[in-house]
Amino acid sequence: MKRMVLCIAAALMLLPAAARAGEEIKIGYLVKQPEEQWFQMEWKFAQACADHYGFTLLKIGATDGEKVLNAIDNIAANGAQGFVCVTPDVRLGPAIVAKAKANNLKLVSNADQFIGADGQPMLDVPYLGIAAYAIGRNVGDELWREMQNRGWKAEETGLCVMTFDELDTVRQRYEGAVDSMMDKGFPQDHVYRAPIMQSMDIPNAINAANVLLSRNPNITKWLIAGGNDNCVLGAVRAMEGRGLRPADMVGIGINGTDCIIELEKPTETGFFGSMLLSARQHGWGATEFVYKWVTEGIEPPKDFRTEGVFITRANFRQVLKDEGFTD
Fold first, then answer.
1. Buried b (16+ CB within 10 A) or exposed e, 51-82
2. How far apart, in whole angstroms, are the C-alpha atoms of residue 125 and residue 300?
3. Nearest to 122 by CA among 135, 132, 107
4. How far apart are CA 29 and CA 85, in angstroms?
5. Do the beta carbons of residue 118 and residue 65 sit within 8 Å?
């Protein structure tokens, strides 16, 4: 009998703390831009995960470093056992990890990988990310395919690359597109980069594209790549302002959520399509990682990457429905 009691006690010690105590499971979900549709969709799918497993989801918008650290304390005070974090600044990684450890919270980073004090990715923190370079190559593949479909010659075509080097995951996206194009024979001297200042929104992208267009008035046909939909939309707006027709542009964005109004327009524009990222995989997936870590002791993978689905005016409604964005 004594041996059986000892065995049961030992087995209980191996269970996650929440499972041993039988306490209510609470998981936090911190996002950097709560007003953005993408993060609202992540929350939607995270909540669906919470409803499926029967735990409480604590959703908090944390737009800067101070708010992130305060939010971690808040969810801990509310009885959370872990959280998902989309950080507003990847350099906050060491502070976020230290705060999580101090509060005994499981942590999964989402979307943007934490950067350590040495400037390198924090590979010991479980991470659900985006296969940024692969997605960028997919953009390049589609740009090349459409260029061929339209019968454009490489020597008369420019590749407008809307750059924003401050975020490595963004840089990987457009560098993947450039590499894909060049691997297919697109001339390097027809790759034109337009650095975006401050933030990756449409007004800043318009400004960056206008500078590029002023310097290259001889280019009459443009392919456009960038880190997100808004970067590409900004370039399209700038080109429209200079009299270029939709037939002279092929813009392909990334995200697939900020371009829906564009794709719904009754007439075609220079915005051809986008790589739709999966808010379902990020919202549900990251939350489920934390839940199973808390309840079953299953530690998430250190590096798990998701890819995208190419949407155009022809298929976007069905794809959005399939992905749970619309009913």
1. eeeebebbbbbbeeeebbbebbebbbeeebbb
2. 9
3. 107
4. 6
5. no
Rounded distance between C-alpha atoms, residue 310 and residue 244, angstroms: 25
Supply the pLDDT for residue 263.
97
Q: Which of these, 99, 47, 26, 45, lies nearest to 68 by C-alpha position?
A: 99
Beginning with the edge strand found earlier in the chain, give each strand of the sheet holding 249-255 in spatial order. Answer: 191-195, 157-163, 221-226, 249-255, 271-277, 308-312
Which alpha helices (DSSP H) does 103-154 contain, by range? 132-150
Burial 311-325 (b: 16+ CB within 10 A, else e): beeeebeebbeebbb
Q: Tell me which residue of 275, 258, 265, 266 sits closest to 312, measured CA to CA.
A: 275
Angstrom distance (rounded) from CA 108 to CA 145 = 37
For the stretch 50-64, pLDDT in tens is 999 999 999 999 999
10-residue averages of pLDDT along the chain (327 residues): 41 46 88 89 96 98 96 98 96 97 98 92 95 96 98 94 90 97 96 94 97 95 97 98 96 93 96 94 96 97 94 95 81
- Amino acid residing at 164: F
CA–CA dist 41, 283 (Å, integer): 7
Residues 6+ positions from 286 with CB-CB distance below 8 Å: 29, 46, 84, 108, 110, 128
Q: Count CB neighbours of 276 within 10 A.
A: 25
Residue with tokens 């395919």: 145
Chain length of the chain? 327
| pLDDT 10s digits, 81-92 | 999 999 999 999
CB-hemisphere CA count at 13 Å for 62? 27
Q: Enter the tokens of residue 216.
A: 């290259």
